[in-house]
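Glutathione S-transferase 2 (Conoideocrella luteorostrata), 263 aa
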Amino acid sequence: MARPTGLVASKGIELLTWSTPNGYKASILLEELKDAYGLEYSSQGINISQNVQKEPWFTAINPNGRIPAIVDHDNGDLAVFEGNAILSYLARRYDTERRFSFAPDEDDYTRAESWIGWQHGGLGPMQGQANHFVRFAKEKIPYGMQRYVGETERLYGVLDARLKDRDYIVGPGKGKYSIADIALLGWVNAVHGTTISIEQFPYVKAWLARCFERPAVQKGFQVPSASASALKPQEGEVAAKMEALRDMVDQAKKQYGYVYSSP
Protein backbone atom coordinates (compact mmCIF):
# COMPACT_ATOMS: atom_id res chain seq x y z
CA MET A 1 0.00 0.00 0.00
CA ALA A 2 1.55 3.28 -1.14
CA ARG A 3 1.90 6.04 1.42
CA PRO A 4 -0.93 8.53 0.89
CA THR A 5 0.05 12.11 0.16
CA GLY A 6 -3.36 13.72 -0.30
CA LEU A 7 -6.90 13.16 -1.46
CA VAL A 8 -7.30 11.07 -4.59
CA ALA A 9 -11.03 11.15 -5.38
CA SER A 10 -13.11 13.88 -6.97
CA LYS A 11 -16.60 12.52 -6.35
CA GLY A 12 -18.47 10.49 -3.76
CA ILE A 13 -17.29 9.80 -0.22
CA GLU A 14 -13.55 9.45 0.35
CA LEU A 15 -12.70 7.59 3.56
CA LEU A 16 -9.36 8.03 5.32
CA THR A 17 -9.00 5.28 7.87
CA TRP A 18 -6.97 2.55 9.53
CA SER A 19 -7.76 -0.84 11.09
CA THR A 20 -8.89 0.42 14.50
CA PRO A 21 -12.16 0.21 16.44
CA ASN A 22 -13.03 3.79 15.52
CA GLY A 23 -12.00 3.32 11.92
CA TYR A 24 -14.39 0.42 11.45
CA LYS A 25 -17.35 2.59 12.41
CA ALA A 26 -17.09 4.48 9.14
CA SER A 27 -16.23 1.55 6.89
CA ILE A 28 -19.07 -0.63 8.22
CA LEU A 29 -21.73 2.05 7.75
CA LEU A 30 -20.37 2.92 4.30
CA GLU A 31 -20.62 -0.74 3.33
CA GLU A 32 -24.17 -0.88 4.68
CA LEU A 33 -25.11 2.22 2.66
CA LYS A 34 -23.47 0.73 -0.40
CA ASP A 35 -25.51 -2.47 -0.08
CA ALA A 36 -28.76 -0.65 0.72
CA TYR A 37 -28.62 2.34 -1.62
CA GLY A 38 -25.72 1.76 -3.99
CA LEU A 39 -23.67 4.54 -2.37
CA GLU A 40 -20.13 4.30 -3.70
CA TYR A 41 -17.08 5.33 -1.74
CA SER A 42 -13.32 5.21 -2.02
CA SER A 43 -10.82 4.73 0.79
CA GLN A 44 -7.19 5.27 1.66
CA GLY A 45 -5.33 3.47 4.43
CA ILE A 46 -3.71 5.96 6.82
CA ASN A 47 -0.98 4.06 8.63
CA ILE A 48 -1.05 5.62 12.08
CA SER A 49 2.18 3.86 13.09
CA GLN A 50 3.92 5.97 10.42
CA ASN A 51 2.20 9.19 11.59
CA VAL A 52 0.61 9.82 8.19
CA GLN A 53 -2.30 11.34 10.13
CA LYS A 54 0.02 14.07 11.42
CA GLU A 55 1.01 15.33 7.98
CA PRO A 56 -0.26 18.79 6.91
CA TRP A 57 -2.51 17.48 4.14
CA PHE A 58 -4.32 15.27 6.64
CA THR A 59 -4.58 17.80 9.48
CA ALA A 60 -6.18 20.17 6.95
CA ILE A 61 -9.02 17.61 6.95
CA ASN A 62 -8.90 16.71 10.65
CA PRO A 63 -7.01 19.26 12.76
CA ASN A 64 -6.78 16.68 15.56
CA GLY A 65 -4.67 14.34 13.44
CA ARG A 66 -6.74 11.22 14.04
CA ILE A 67 -8.59 8.68 11.91
CA PRO A 68 -11.20 8.18 10.65
CA ALA A 69 -12.16 11.14 8.53
CA ILE A 70 -14.26 11.46 5.42
CA VAL A 71 -14.50 14.02 2.66
CA ASP A 72 -17.82 14.24 0.85
CA HIS A 73 -16.85 15.38 -2.62
CA ASP A 74 -20.55 15.54 -3.56
CA ASN A 75 -21.23 18.08 -0.81
CA GLY A 76 -18.68 20.78 -1.46
CA ASP A 77 -15.75 18.61 -0.26
CA LEU A 78 -17.12 18.74 3.27
CA ALA A 79 -14.71 17.14 5.74
CA VAL A 80 -16.14 15.23 8.71
CA PHE A 81 -13.99 13.78 11.48
CA GLU A 82 -14.60 11.77 14.68
CA GLY A 83 -16.17 8.36 14.10
CA ASN A 84 -19.47 9.13 15.77
CA ALA A 85 -19.88 12.42 13.90
CA ILE A 86 -19.28 10.49 10.69
CA LEU A 87 -22.00 8.01 11.63
CA SER A 88 -24.45 10.84 12.31
CA TYR A 89 -23.60 12.70 9.09
CA LEU A 90 -23.85 9.67 6.83
CA ALA A 91 -27.11 8.58 8.44
CA ARG A 92 -28.68 12.04 8.12
CA ARG A 93 -27.65 12.59 4.52
CA TYR A 94 -27.65 9.15 2.94
CA ASP A 95 -29.82 6.81 5.02
CA THR A 96 -32.94 8.26 3.46
CA GLU A 97 -35.16 5.30 4.39
CA ARG A 98 -33.87 5.16 8.00
CA ARG A 99 -32.68 1.59 7.58
CA PHE A 100 -29.80 2.14 10.02
CA SER A 101 -31.02 5.15 11.97
CA PHE A 102 -34.09 6.86 13.38
CA ALA A 103 -36.05 9.98 12.52
CA PRO A 104 -35.15 12.97 14.73
CA ASP A 105 -38.69 13.16 16.12
CA GLU A 106 -38.56 9.53 17.34
CA ASP A 107 -37.60 8.76 20.92
CA ASP A 108 -35.28 6.04 19.61
CA TYR A 109 -33.23 8.78 17.93
CA THR A 110 -32.45 10.12 21.39
CA ARG A 111 -31.89 6.63 22.78
CA ALA A 112 -29.41 5.95 19.99
CA GLU A 113 -27.64 9.23 20.77
CA SER A 114 -27.39 8.16 24.42
CA TRP A 115 -25.77 4.82 23.62
CA ILE A 116 -23.45 6.34 21.03
CA GLY A 117 -22.45 8.93 23.64
CA TRP A 118 -21.90 6.10 26.15
CA GLN A 119 -19.51 4.44 23.73
CA HIS A 120 -17.72 7.68 22.89
CA GLY A 121 -17.30 8.85 26.48
CA GLY A 122 -17.04 5.51 28.28
CA LEU A 123 -16.33 2.22 26.58
CA GLY A 124 -14.00 3.60 23.89
CA PRO A 125 -11.71 5.63 26.16
CA MET A 126 -11.63 3.02 28.95
CA GLN A 127 -10.99 0.09 26.62
CA GLY A 128 -8.37 2.10 24.75
CA GLN A 129 -6.52 2.83 28.00
CA ALA A 130 -6.82 -0.79 29.12
CA ASN A 131 -5.34 -1.95 25.83
CA HIS A 132 -2.50 0.57 26.16
CA PHE A 133 -1.55 -0.23 29.76
CA VAL A 134 -1.78 -4.00 29.26
CA ARG A 135 -0.14 -4.38 25.86
CA PHE A 136 1.84 -1.31 24.86
CA ALA A 137 3.08 0.62 27.89
CA LYS A 138 6.82 0.09 28.39
CA GLU A 139 6.28 -0.05 32.14
CA LYS A 140 3.72 -2.55 33.40
CA ILE A 141 1.93 -0.50 36.05
CA PRO A 142 -0.38 -2.70 38.17
CA TYR A 143 -2.66 0.13 39.27
CA GLY A 144 -3.21 1.37 35.71
CA MET A 145 -3.90 -2.11 34.41
CA GLN A 146 -6.48 -3.08 37.04
CA ARG A 147 -8.06 0.38 36.94
CA TYR A 148 -8.76 0.43 33.21
CA VAL A 149 -9.39 -3.27 32.69
CA GLY A 150 -11.78 -3.20 35.65
CA GLU A 151 -13.70 -0.19 34.34
CA THR A 152 -13.88 -1.74 30.87
CA GLU A 153 -15.20 -4.93 32.41
CA ARG A 154 -17.85 -2.95 34.29
CA LEU A 155 -18.97 -1.27 31.08
CA TYR A 156 -19.28 -4.60 29.30
CA GLY A 157 -21.53 -5.66 32.15
CA VAL A 158 -23.74 -2.65 31.40
CA LEU A 159 -23.88 -3.60 27.72
CA ASP A 160 -24.56 -7.25 28.52
CA ALA A 161 -27.52 -6.26 30.70
CA ARG A 162 -28.86 -4.04 27.92
CA LEU A 163 -28.73 -6.92 25.45
CA LYS A 164 -30.16 -9.58 27.76
CA ASP A 165 -33.64 -9.37 26.22
CA ARG A 166 -32.76 -7.57 22.99
CA ASP A 167 -31.27 -8.39 19.59
CA TYR A 168 -29.95 -4.86 19.06
CA ILE A 169 -29.13 -1.94 21.30
CA VAL A 170 -31.90 0.49 20.33
CA GLY A 171 -35.28 0.22 18.63
CA PRO A 172 -38.79 -1.08 19.28
CA GLY A 173 -39.36 -4.61 20.54
CA LYS A 174 -36.08 -6.46 20.53
CA GLY A 175 -34.42 -3.58 18.71
CA LYS A 176 -33.33 -2.59 15.21
CA TYR A 177 -29.80 -2.81 13.85
CA SER A 178 -28.60 0.79 13.68
CA ILE A 179 -25.69 3.18 14.03
CA ALA A 180 -25.90 2.57 17.79
CA ASP A 181 -24.71 -0.97 17.11
CA ILE A 182 -22.18 0.09 14.48
CA ALA A 183 -20.57 2.54 16.93
CA LEU A 184 -19.76 -0.40 19.22
CA LEU A 185 -18.84 -3.18 16.82
CA GLY A 186 -15.16 -2.34 16.36
CA TRP A 187 -14.60 -1.97 20.09
CA VAL A 188 -16.37 -5.17 21.10
CA ASN A 189 -14.53 -7.08 18.41
CA ALA A 190 -11.25 -5.92 19.96
CA VAL A 191 -12.12 -6.84 23.55
CA HIS A 192 -9.51 -9.63 23.65
CA GLY A 193 -6.78 -6.97 23.60
CA THR A 194 -7.72 -6.06 27.18
CA THR A 195 -7.45 -9.70 28.46
CA ILE A 196 -11.24 -9.68 29.02
CA SER A 197 -12.94 -12.72 27.56
CA ILE A 198 -16.12 -12.18 25.57
CA GLU A 199 -17.32 -15.48 27.04
CA GLN A 200 -17.93 -13.58 30.29
CA PHE A 201 -20.70 -11.62 28.56
CA PRO A 202 -22.94 -14.09 26.70
CA TYR A 203 -25.49 -11.54 25.49
CA VAL A 204 -22.76 -9.33 24.06
CA LYS A 205 -21.25 -12.37 22.36
CA ALA A 206 -24.60 -13.34 20.83
CA TRP A 207 -25.12 -9.76 19.62
CA LEU A 208 -21.67 -9.67 18.01
CA ALA A 209 -22.32 -12.98 16.25
CA ARG A 210 -25.69 -11.64 15.04
CA CYS A 211 -24.07 -8.52 13.61
CA PHE A 212 -21.31 -10.53 11.96
CA GLU A 213 -23.95 -12.36 9.94
CA ARG A 214 -24.41 -9.15 7.94
CA PRO A 215 -22.29 -9.10 4.75
CA ALA A 216 -21.66 -5.35 5.10
CA VAL A 217 -20.23 -5.84 8.60
CA GLN A 218 -17.87 -8.50 7.28
CA LYS A 219 -16.81 -6.22 4.40
CA GLY A 220 -16.42 -3.22 6.69
CA PHE A 221 -13.99 -5.15 8.87
CA GLN A 222 -11.80 -5.63 5.80
CA VAL A 223 -11.18 -1.89 5.27
CA PRO A 224 -8.38 -1.06 4.94
CA SER A 225 -7.17 -4.45 6.22
CA ALA A 226 -8.78 -7.46 7.85
CA SER A 227 -9.53 -7.64 11.56
CA ALA A 228 -9.66 -10.98 13.38
CA SER A 229 -12.99 -11.86 14.92
CA ALA A 230 -13.31 -11.93 18.70
CA LEU A 231 -15.64 -14.89 18.17
CA LYS A 232 -12.75 -17.09 17.06
CA PRO A 233 -10.47 -18.57 19.76
CA GLN A 234 -6.92 -17.30 19.81
CA GLU A 235 -4.29 -19.89 19.06
CA GLY A 236 -0.55 -20.52 19.25
CA GLU A 237 1.81 -17.73 20.28
CA VAL A 238 -0.98 -15.16 20.33
CA ALA A 239 -2.98 -17.22 22.83
CA ALA A 240 0.09 -17.88 24.98
CA LYS A 241 1.01 -14.20 25.09
CA MET A 242 -2.53 -13.19 25.99
CA GLU A 243 -2.67 -15.79 28.77
CA ALA A 244 0.53 -14.37 30.25
CA LEU A 245 -0.95 -10.85 30.13
CA ARG A 246 -4.16 -12.12 31.72
CA ASP A 247 -2.18 -13.60 34.61
CA MET A 248 -0.42 -10.26 35.07
CA VAL A 249 -3.74 -8.38 35.12
CA ASP A 250 -5.21 -10.88 37.59
CA GLN A 251 -2.27 -10.28 39.91
CA ALA A 252 -2.79 -6.52 39.63
CA LYS A 253 -6.47 -6.97 40.51
CA LYS A 254 -5.55 -8.97 43.59
CA GLN A 255 -2.96 -6.40 44.62
CA TYR A 256 -5.55 -3.63 44.68
CA GLY A 257 -8.51 -5.71 45.87
CA TYR A 258 -10.48 -5.40 42.66
CA VAL A 259 -13.84 -7.17 42.63
CA TYR A 260 -15.98 -7.13 39.49
CA SER A 261 -19.26 -5.30 39.86
CA SER A 262 -21.62 -3.78 37.29
CA PRO A 263 -23.10 -1.25 36.94
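The two ends are 44 Å apart (CA to CA). Residues 62 and 121 are 20 Å apart (CA to CA). ok done for today
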